[in-house]
UniProtKB/TrEMBL annotation:
It comes from Chelydra serpentina (Snapping turtle). GO terms for molecular function: galactoside 2-alpha-L-fucosyltransferase activity. The keyword Metal-binding does not apply. Transmembrane segments: none annotated. This is L-Fucosyltransferase.
């Protein structure tokens, strides 16, 4: 989604026609009403492309990209590329009716007897991030305390919040998120195979609690309400900060809760 939105915005800035690859179309078209045309395989292989690498945030030189046939590379995911076109981006990422109806039907089923319900989507990124953040990037993923603080914010602010939890590590979520108040619902089975359904649920909530990763960022962007994110989740000397700018990733009005970077307690055997 970040690549699509960036391509869409940069093409407009440079007065060009944007095309997407079939692989991107296959990923996005089942969910969204995207409009960019797809470049055919034959055409793609016959064109002398000039590769143009982007870093993760907008730079002034991207307003003047030279060349007739340009292939953008890199992994851009920053609102600084496309936020000035927010309404157009939201239109591109508007859901097909059947996706929208399924998400709204699921959420309506959680309402119960509540009259003044506020839906808060929670995305907990686990999986490979648990190892990669600690081993490679000198960082952490969200812990139980972070989620309690974030949920506490919405419980204090809204009369009848309902929390909808999505994750690729649902077992961890069930063990670490307190559902005893009856306002927490664990969606799906936490398998990687249903990300589209999970994403649609999050995007149709009123507000968002994300942990780390672009899945949660885009859920918050589409939901459009308040978004709470995990802040300062790497040590200051982490190499991650060379390729990642928090200020260019999280919208200024989003609310950051600092991660706990203290070392885990030592355990003694024997």
């Amino acid at each position: 989604m970040g690549e699509y939105a960036t391509l869409y915005a940069l093409a407009k800035m440079n007065g060009r026609q944007a095309y997407i690859l079939p692989e991107m179309h296959q990923q996005l078209a089942p969910l969204f009403r995207i409009t960019l045309p797809v470049v055919s395989g034959n055409m793609y292989w016959s064109i002398p492309w000039r590769d143009y690498e982007l870093h993760d945030w907008m730079s002034e030189e991207y307003r003047h990209i030279e060349g007739k046939y340009v292939r953008l590379t890199g992994y851009p995911c920053s609102w600084t590329f496309y936020h000035h076109l927010r309404q157009e981006i939201l239109q591109e990422f508007s859901f097909h009716d059947h996706v929208k109806e399924e998400a709204n039907r699921y959420l309506a089923g959680l309402r119960g007897q509540r009259r003044n319900v506020t839906y808060v989507g929670i995305h907990v990124r686990r999986g490979d991030y648990v190892r990669v953040m600690t081993k490679k990037w000198k960082g952490v993923v969200a812990d139980k305390a972070y989620l309690e603080k974030a949920m506490g914010y919405f419980r204090a602010k809204y009369q009848e919040p309902v929390f909808v939890v999505t994750s690729n590590g649902m077992e961890w979520c069930r063990e670490n998120i307190d559902a005893s108040r009856g306002d927490v619902y664990f969606s799906g089975d936490g398998k990687e195979s249903s990300p589209g359904r999970d994403f649609a649920l999050l995007a149709h909530c009123n507000h968002t609690i994300m942990t780390i990763g672009t899945f949660g960022i885009w859920a918050g962007y589409l939901a459009g309400g308040e978004t709470i994110y995990l802040a300062n989740y790497t040590l200051p000397d982490s190499p991650f900060l060379e390729i990642f700018k928090p200020a260019a990733t999280f919208l200024p009005q989003w609310i950051g809760i600092d991660a706990d970077l203290s070392p885990p307690p030592l355990t003694h055997s024997g």
